[in-house]
Structures are given as structure tokens and as C-alpha cells.
Amino acid sequence: MNEVHVVSVAKELPEYYRDTKDILPLVDVWLSAQSDRFRRKVIKIFEGAGVDRRYGIMDPEEVFTATTFEQKNAIYVREIKKLGTAVLNKALKKNQWTPESLDYIITVSCTGIMIPSLDAYIINDLGLRQDVVRLPVTEMGCAAGVSGMIYASNFLRSNPGKRAAVIAVESPTATFQLNDFSMANMVSAAIFGDGAACVLLSSEEQAAGPVIVGEEMYHFKDATHLMGFDLVNTGLKMILDPKVPETISEHFPDIVYPFLQKHQSSMDKVHHLIFHPGGRKIVQTVEDLFGDLGKNIDDTRETLRLYGNMSSATVLYVLERFMDKEIPSGEQGLILSFGPGFSAQRVLLEW
Fold it and tell me: Is the pTM of the predicted complex or chain greater than 0.90?
């Protein structure tokens, strides 16, 4: 079997950004018709979300403006084309890869709707080969960045000497619901931000970067209600069940230990945790579980603080932090992400 290497990670941020403290006045105006108690509660959610800044494809004032689904989706389509092309271009240049050298392109996004999918536009804009294999992943939410890496790994393992790009571009701000005062909408507004990331992978003999030791998905049965979107007339309306952290806790041993065992590893051998920061409560839950095992998820918490939860792209931002470190040969890292389904995706790396 061929070895698959994670060669590089690049990120790209939209032009607009605002610190959380500067968004609070806009939130206050947005909730002006609600009770004082409710407003205070929501402001507290924003202040306690562990997010200091978030980026967006539109100005915050525009986010809080009443628009149709068609108008918001048009902005999403326009901006993610730019971000997707820019982030792949950045990743290719960083590694002196030509666009024509890519054999496989996987694009990941769940925060808007476009057909043809993003990959078609990137192929045209950057001049990828006409026989490049395309795979758009559109409905796997926060777990999709890792899902894309799993698909790429499977493709590369069975095809020696090939190159793949996984491009995740998300704009949760395009899904913001102005007239939804549910807790799910409040929490998602407090934690989400926009961003793009690209991972380059290779099955070439001379490829650099950590090797993928194994990858696997884990499906939680009868848990489709936990996370996702409802498609309503005003766009994509967030579904976020408060039971997500406790569900992760219950399944944690089944998600982690058999997977590591299968690949002749164990928690003792895993030095680095590359975990998707779904939100403060999920981060706290996973930190408690891993903390008992003497592990930390500082890079996960720091990514949440700096950018918020950018859905599928976020765990790739965490991965980039590890790719930029001087990690000794032989050390292992576990990538872990959760998403609608409900599902957990895992990738085991070795430097």
C-alpha cells in the first residue's frame, strides 16, 4: 500500500472582521424588541463564547440587515469562489506545485447552495487539468474538512504518485437568521465565523509531511436530530441540540480507543490532539475527556478564540498550527471532528 502524506495546509480569511466586543452593540439593536432578560442572556452567550474575533464575507451591518435567501446566497456564491480560488493558489505556491499537477480536487462547503459546485469554478480559474477528478462535499457540516481528507487518503492510497487538494470554504454568516430568536440561532451567531482552508496531500514517494496512518468515520445511530440545517424560505436555519456535548461524552470511548487500537496505537502514543472547536461547551467536554488522559487541546481553544467556528474549515486551521511546529519524527497526532449525521471523523497522523 502507498503512504499518503499531508504535505501542507494554507488558510484564507475574508476581508471583513470585527472583534466580539464591537459586535455586541449590533446584537443589542437586533434584540431591541425582546425582553431585557433575554437580551442580557444573549449578550452573556456572546461574551462567554470564547471567540474574540470573527471574519465575514460581508460587513457585520449587512449581516444584521433583512435580505432574502436569494440575496444572501448570491453573496455566498460570489465570495466563496474568490476564497476557494485564493486558498488553493496560496497552498500550491507555498509548495511549488503547479495547478496542472493536481489529480484530485475535493471542495467542502455546507453554508450555501451552488450548482455547478465550487470545484468547477476553481478548475477554470486556476487552469487545472481537464481530467482532474472532482468531488464536492456539501452536506457534512463541521466534519466535512476531515471527511475530505479521508476521501483524499483513500484515493491516494490506491493511486501511487498522485496529488490531491481538499478545499473547505464556509460562510456561516450567510446562514444567519434575523427573525429566529431560538437558542440554537443565538448560540450559532455567537460562535460562528467565515473562512477558507486548503490541505494538500500526496502519494508520491518523495512527499514531505506527516503520514496518514489510518482514517475512519463513526456514525451515531438515530442522532440525525442533533445538528444540521432546516431549509426555510429565509435560508438555512441552524439545528443545534444542547445534548451534543453529552452525546459526545457517552460515545467517546467507542470513538477513540478501538480506532487507535486498530492502527497499533494508543492514547499514550498520541502526542498531539487536532480537534475541531465546535464551540465552548464542546471544547470543554473534550478537554475534560482528554485532560484526564494528560492531553491538552490548547491549539483548538486558541483557534476558536482567533476565528470562531468556521464549520468544516476550522479543524484545518488547527492542523495548520501543528504543521507549522517542529514535531519530532515518530510522534503521532489525532485529528477529530464532529458533524451532522451525527458523526465523528478521525485521522491518525505520524510525523
Answer: yes
